[in-house]
Specification:
The structure holds 2 protein chains of 2 kinds.
Chain A: H1 3-32, E1 41-46, H2 47-52, H3 58-66, E2 83-86, H4 87-90, H5 101-104, E3 107-110, H6 119-123, E4 129-131, E5 137-139, H7 149-153, E6 160-161, E7 185-186, H8 192-195, H9 202-206, E8 212-216, H10 223-230, E9 233-234, E10 246-249
Parallel strand pairs in A: 1-10
Antiparallel strand pairs in A: 1-8, 2-3, 4-5, 6-7, 9-10
Chain B: H1 10-36, H2 51-64, H3 67-75, H4 85-106, H5 115-118, H6 125-152, H7 161-184, H8 197-223, H9 230-261, H10 264-274, H11 284-302, H12 304-308, H13 310-337, H14 352-379
Helix pairs in contact in B: 1-14, 2-4, 2-7, 2-8, 2-13, 3-4, 3-7, 4-6, 4-14, 6-7, 7-8, 8-9, 8-13, 9-11, 11-13
Classes of the chains: A alpha+beta, B mainly alpha.
Amino acid sequence: MNRRNFIKIVSFGGVLTVASKMTLDAFADAHKGNGKAVKRWAMIIDTKKCAEQENCTKCMDACNTIHNIPHFDNKKDEVKWIWKEKFEHAFITSENPYLSEKINKRQIPLLCNHCDNPPCTEVCPTQATWKREDGIVMMDWHRCIGCRYCIAACPFGSRSFNWRDPRENIENLNEAFPTRTKGVVEKCTFCDERIARGQIPACVEACEAKAMHFGDLNDANSELRKILVNNFSIRRKPELGTSPEVYYLV
Amino acid sequence: MLEKAFTGSKKYWAWIIFLLVIIGISFIFYLKQFSIGLTVTGLSRDVSWGFYIAQFTFLVGVAASAVMVVLPYYLHNYKAFSKITILGEFLAIGAVIMCMLFIFVDMGQPLRILNVFLHPTFHSMMFWDSVSLFGYLVLNVLISMVTLGAEKNGVPPPHWIKPIIIFSIPWAVSIHTVTAFLYSGLAARPFWMSAIMAPRFLATAFAAGPALLLLIIFILRKITKFNVGKEPVQKLAVIITYAMILNVFFLLLEMFTAYYSGITEHTLHFKLLYTGLEGNNTLVPYMWTSMILAIISLYFLINPKTRHNEKILAFSCAAVFLSIWIDKGLGMIVAGFIPNPLGEVVVYNPTLTELMISLGVYAIGALIITGLYKIVLTARNQIKYKL
């Protein structure tokens, strides 16, 4: 066999392998079937109640400690799952020059919106981030290749990247939760690990002002649905069609 | 055939060693990035893609531009391109490999990169971009090796290669279209979300790629016996002219839509690029340089007298190349990220490490292209000074 024939055979074999793997995967997906979506987790944040507790950081502290989120002094390396921004930044498309100073400067807690149509999971080339049937947008930190396409696709700036080793900068290590490695993306997962144990997200639990509510939107009798029916609520950038599942009362 | 790249004159080896030294130095910088993480770059939570991804985008264009010599030669039987078609294909091979390397150095977890093929994801444009780039590389290697082998043996290329060559033409268009889709499908980034992005990418590609090819042809003419004559040079010049006109036209269309509609989230990015936004002026001098170079090059390219003058043509080609490199390789990616989704104006400046790693990737590309061109020229026995 000469070199040319060898290369021909090897490349043909390679193409065949990839093609069959794709076909088999497609069949496997088709046979998985769809389990009935039972729940649709969502969150409501009452910004007025939240603002009454000026400079409160309880929700963020709880999240940072539980999830081993590193703290860096420079903004460039920053990793954050839940944080506060001024109203004018949080609701950039609701710009209004005569909005009262009180509302415009109001600090709004921001986190992953766990959208119904998440653009981040759509673009991920390895399915390292995906939407669960209960609506939680999950992350697999072992599969993520760190391409940061999801960061480019998120209209809310909710995703962070580990620009450096986070483990050096975790203040109090929580051994019950994994730490991450450098070079992967991370974000809020609605405390999926706590939900699995029947608990509510850590930020909601930590909020003493009772400004945060968490629950199942598919349940017509849930506290969440009642609040949404009785109050005026807004979502961030609804015009983009991602359908965020974090609602804000103003 | 490959062995021909390993024999050459002192000058040839000096150039090779020069490139190897740059690659070696840049590799040390990459090791630093590999061990510490991407924090060694100027990238941040807000501007999460920068110089690397911009070079990738620009080079996909250079790769795709091979179609501008392949199409006239194989589809229209335009004989004047017979000598340069292979040069275009080899330039494409070098450019695609550089694209892949720029993606590789941008990855947070480069060792996991094969996850893209282990978990093929059809709804991700990045998956399709990898497929189209790999496919394009395979097509070009196959086509150039087969046609060059036939040429060396003095026989016409085998018949089975013709349909593959024809197939490679739309494939070349696809690589830059899919690369545009990486950006133009993101609702989060209004600056990129424009249907004209793919056509504009192709226009910039078909101007910058042939401009680079012409510059290389001029250099080869100086240092080797390789001479393609006047006709293919002038034909390429016409192609560059049309493509550059389209590029500037498309840019003006983008600006019309942004400014006439007045939608802030579109105009802000243009302000950032051309007038500066909230104190961030980092890109302004570059973008105006790009604009002026575009105008000057068009003036010299459109006027037949200056286009036929090869000295002025060489200058125009350099101007086209630089203008488009600034536009795509500096401005376009970064401007999509500023202001960030919260409306904050941030600053991004590539670091020395980032620039050195990029230089290394370009040096690898230059090394590959040098070696491949050496093979062609030796095979054609056109080496003037026994390079």
